[in-house]
Specification:
Chain lengths: ~110, ~110
């Protein structure tokens, strides 16, 4: 059975801190790993990773994939209160249409 | 701007009612999905469709059915709503898997069954 595990499940930090969110996976026929940010509405797409070792970056957010060790990290530097959200990790495989989601990491950034 | 639109943000229904949740996408996507999201359980796939009139069960299809009569519209049906179906329901759509693109989500419907 395909499995996607995120850690930690929740996290509280102060504004300006750097955070690292983790996502490990065990799936058959890996295709890609995706990160989403969910505030109190629709998850919005952040990154798609398909190749090991290539960092994707968008502003203060960055992510990297390790296909040998089967994990990805999402880094957020200089956190702001607007970064408070649930961050979802999902894996797509070549043997299915749907994304397999982890349970999410709930991040709270306090002023 | 790409759009997945769910018909209601909030719904309150009584136990035993038949409930329809509607989802429309304007991106000409082949695939459409219904997930439910519960605290501590994450997103779980209920049903998906990869083409008009085609549907496949996801991980938790019991108590649900779906309909896809047109490419842009995917409906989730609760045949007889029960309190354990109180949840956030998220619709998503994506292109064919061979294109390896992300899925786009609707804003969610928070359903309460009383």
């Amino acid at each position: 059975e395909d499995k996607v595990v995120q850690s930690p499940l929740s996290l509280v930090v102060h504004e300006g801190d750097t955070v690292t969110l983790n996502c490990s996976y065990e799936v058959t026929n890996f295709r890609s790993l995706l990160w989403y940010k969910q505030e109190k509405k629709a998850p919005t797409f952040l990154f798609m990773l398909t190749s090991s070792g290539i960092e994707k970056k968008s502003g203060r957010l960055s992510s990297i994939l390790d296909k040998k060790e089967l994990f990805s990290i999402l880094n957020i530097t200089a956190t702001q209160t607007g970064d408070s959200a649930v961050y979802l990790c999902a894996v797509a495989t070549n043997s299915g249409y749907a994304l397999n989601f982890g349970k999410g990491t709930s991040l709270l950034v306090t002023p | 701007d790409v759009k997945v639109t769910q018909s209601s943000r909030y719904l309150v229904k009584r136990t035993g009612e038949k409930v329809f949740l509607e989802c429309v996408q304007d991106m000409d996507h082949e695939n459409m999905f219904w997930y439910r999201q519960d605290p501590g359980l994450g997103l779980r796939l209920i049903y998906f469709s990869y083409d008009v009139k085609m549907k496949e069960k996801g991980d938790i299809p019991e108590g649900y059915s779906v309909s896809r009569e047109k490419k842009e519209r995917f409906s989730l049906i609760l045949e007889s709503a029960s309190t354990n179906q109180t949840s956030m329901y998220l619709c998503a759509s994506s292109f064919d898997p061979n294109m390896n693109t992300e899925a786009f989500f609707g804003q969610g419907t928070r359903l309460t069954v009383v």
